[in-house]
Write a structure and sequence with these properties.
The chain has helices spanning 2-19, 41-44, 55-140. By secondary structure, it is mainly α.
């Protein structure tokens, strides 16, 4: 009975990963576009003191900028949003596929093969270099250095 319950919970969790509800209010919950896309009228167009246009022009410019940015974004989202989502989905699926089926197996194969080479290399070093270093150490250990201060 407990195994059936666990199997049911696993199926529910797997289903929820692909059919989860989308938050339509907070569309950037991880704040990945926090500092990039916040462009307001004041960030782009500013008039320094002493060089002001007519108030009507300023108000109309503000409204035109804000509304055109809003509707151009919406129009681009409608026309290009879904095709780009398909392209990005395909690209990340391709990257995941290559990583899972090519990159990781190649790395694992390399690690297995390099372990064999590493053992042979280690054996050669211990066979030839260790005795040489020990002999040099014994020869050079009899050298004594004396420092004298001459006045």
């Amino acid at each position: 009975m407990a195994e059936e319950q666990m199997g049911l919970e696993e199926r529910i969790i797997i289903k929820d990963q692909h059919t989860k509800e989308i938050d339509l209010v907070n569309r950037d919950p991880k704040h990945i576009n926090e500092d990039v896309i916040k462009v307001e009228f004041e960030d782009v167009i500013a008039e320094p003191a002493g060089t002001y246009s007519f108030d009507g022009v300023w108000k109309t410019s503000y409204t035109t900028f804000t509304v055109s940015k809003y509707w151009c974004y919406r129009l681009l989202s409608v026309v290009l949003g879904v095709p780009l989502a398909v392209i990005w989905g395909f690209l990340f699926a391709l990257i995941s596929f290559c990583h899972i089926w090519a990159v990781v197996p190649c790395i694992k194969s390399y690690v297995i093969e390099i372990q064999c080479v590493s053992r042979i290399y280690s054996l050669c070093i211990h066979t030839f270099c260790d005795p040489l270093c020990e002999a040099l150490g014994k020869v050079l250990s009899s050298i004594k250095v004396a420092l004298r201060k001459e006045t």
